[in-house]
Specification:
single chain; alpha/beta; Rossmann fold; eight-stranded mixed beta sheet; 12 helices; 16% strand; globular
C-alpha cells in the first residue's frame, strides 16, 4: 500500500487523511480497493428500503436525505446512478484517468455516472470542501454541508438547506462525528425529525448518541448481526482493534479476528414511527 499502514489515529484506525481532501477521488478509491472496502454495498439495500418506505407516505415521493461523512459521494453514487461499488473501485484503476487533470476527470465522471434528476435529494455533509465540490460537480449530490459541527453550529443558510430532511445516513463516520453533530442537525430540523440509519464500527460506542437522542423522542434499534466494512490495513490496526473490542467486553471471534472491521446498523426512529411499520427487509436484520 502506498501509505503508512502502521500509523493509527485516536480511534485505532489507520490514518487515511491524505485521501479525503483531494480534488478528485482517484487516490480515495485506489486506497479503498486495496482495503477491500465493502460497507457502502452492504448498506445500500437498507437505504433503498428506507427511502421506499418514506416515499409511500409522501404524495410527491420527494425524499431528502443527509449523508454524514459523504466524502466524494459513494453512497450517493449507489443511490442515484446505476453503478455498483465494484464499478467505482474498478473505474479508478484505469491508467488513462490518472493522467487527467481534475477538470477533465470531473467532466469524464459526470458523463460516466449519468445521474438523472430523480425524487431523491442528497445533501453531502463532510469536513472536506474538495470532496464535496467533486460530488457536486458530478451531480452525485444536490447540495453540500461543509464543516465540523462538533465545534460549530449551523448557519441560517445551512439550516435552510437541510429543512424537511426525511433521512440521515452514515457508513463509517460515527466516532469522528459524535452527538454534537447529531444534536445540531436535529435541533435545526425541529419540529420535523428524520429517521436515522447509521452503520457504526463495533469498536465505537453508540451509547452516548442513543441516550441523548432519546430525549428528542427517538427509539434506537441495533442489528443482531454486524456488516463487514473493510480489511485491516496492517497487523498494527488489527491488534489495536482486537484489544479495543476485548476492553469493551466484545468477542472478535468470527468477525474482526478473521481480518476485517465489522459494523452494526443502528436505526433510530422518531416519535410517531413504529418499528413494526418498517419493511420486512429491514426488520429481518434485527
Amino acid at each position: 500500500m502506498n501509505f503508512d499502514t502502521t500509523k493509527l489515529d485516536a480511534t485505532g484506525k489507520v490514518v487515511l487523511d491524505h485521501i479525503y481532501d483531494l480534488e478528485t477521488p482517484l487516490h480515495f478509491y485506489n486506497a479503498l480497493s486495496e482495503l477491500d472496502y465493502s460497507i457502502p454495498a452492504e448498506a445500500n439495500p437498507v437505504f433503498e428500503k428506507l427511502i421506499s418506505f418514506l416515499q409511500k407516505n409522501k404524495a410527491n415521493k420527494e425524499i431528502k436525505l443527509i449523508d454524514l461523512g459523504s466524502s466524494y459521494g459513494v453512497n450517493s453514487a449507489l443511490l442515484k446512478s446505476k453503478k455498483s461499488l465494484n464499478d467505482l473501485l474498478e473505474r479508478y484503476k484505469v491508467r488513462e484517468l490518472k493522467n487527467s487533470t481534475s477538470n477533465e476527470l470531473i467532466k469524464k465522471d459526470k458523463s460516466w455516472y449519468q445521474v438523472e434528476k430523480n425524487s431523491i435529494t442528497i445533501i453531502g455533509a463532510d469536513v472536506s470542501e474538495r470532496a464535496l465540490d467533486y460530488a457536486l460537480k458530478t451531480n452525485l449530490i444536490n447540495n453540500k454541508l461543509c464543516g465540523n459541527f462538533e465545534e460549530r453550529t449551523l448557519t441560517e443558510t445551512e439550516t435552510q438547506i437541510i429543512e424537511n430532511t426525511d433521512l440521515i445516513i452514515s457508513t463509517g463516520c460515527i466516532g469522528y462525528v459524535g452527538y454534537q453533530t447529531i444534536k445540531e442537525l436535529l435541533n435545526s430540523l425541529t419540529p420535523k425529525q428524520p429517521i436515522m440509519a447509521h452503520f457504526v464500527l463495533r469498536t465505537i460506542s453508540f451509547e452516548k448518541i442513543e441516550q441523548e437522542i432519546s430525549k428528542n423522542g427517538y427509539k434506537t434499534y441495533k442489528s443482531k448481526m454486524p456488516f463487514r466494512q473493510r480489511s485491516f490495513a496492517s497487523k498494527e490496526e488489527k491488534t489495536s482493534t482486537l484489544e479495543r473490542l476485548i476492553e469493551m467486553g466484545l468477542n472478535p471471534e468470527n468477525y474482526e479476528a478473521e481480518g476485517s472491521y465489522y459494523a452494526h446498523l443502528y436505526i433510530s426512529l422518531p416519535s410517531g414511527i413504529e418499528f413494526t411499520s418498517l419493511p420486512e427487509g429491514i426488520k429481518s436484520y434485527f
